[in-house]
Amino acid sequence: MAQTIRVVVNGRTVERSVPERMLLVDFIRDELGLTGTHQGCTYEGVCGACTVHLNGEAVKSCMMLAVQADGEEITTIEGLARDGALHPVQKAFNEHHALQCGYCTSGMIMNAVDFLRTTPAPTEAEIRHALIGNICRCTGYQNIVAAVAAAAAAMRARAAE
Ligand code: FES
Ligand code: FES
Fold first, then answer.
1. Hey, where are the domains in the chain?
2. Which residues make Cβ contacts (< 8 Å) with residue 57, sequence separation at least 6?
3. Hey, whose CA ends up nearest to atom 2 of ligand 2?
């Protein structure tokens, strides 16, 4: 059975007929072609590579159906930059060499952006805890934690201007 859904993805309204059992991650990647969202653990919900924002909050898009997003707003890594400028978290990942193969990176960043929205001045322990659901097999995490801390500082400085 197919069902028609309408979602706002990265600020653009899209309407599609999708199989009722299609996962949101597959909708994003295969229907919309937004392949910055990754699928890393064969839909088990453990790696975090598929993390996107649903109405501004980080969700693992392999853990919900596309039809459950009907009427909602989705942001993927492709929609994070504004007016050609990288989001501060993207910028910090770049500057702090917080990626190697990059497979985990979009999910890490989407999770970190949501985390910093609610925790603007995190401790290192809080950053590590927030990223516990995002697995990276390359970096050893140290540079990722440094990048999130740097992004938090940059965002606080910008807010104080
Ligand atoms: S693909 Fe969703 S958590 Fe791994
Ligand atoms: S950079 Fe390769 S999995 Fe994280």
1. 2-79, 88-160
2. 114
3. 101
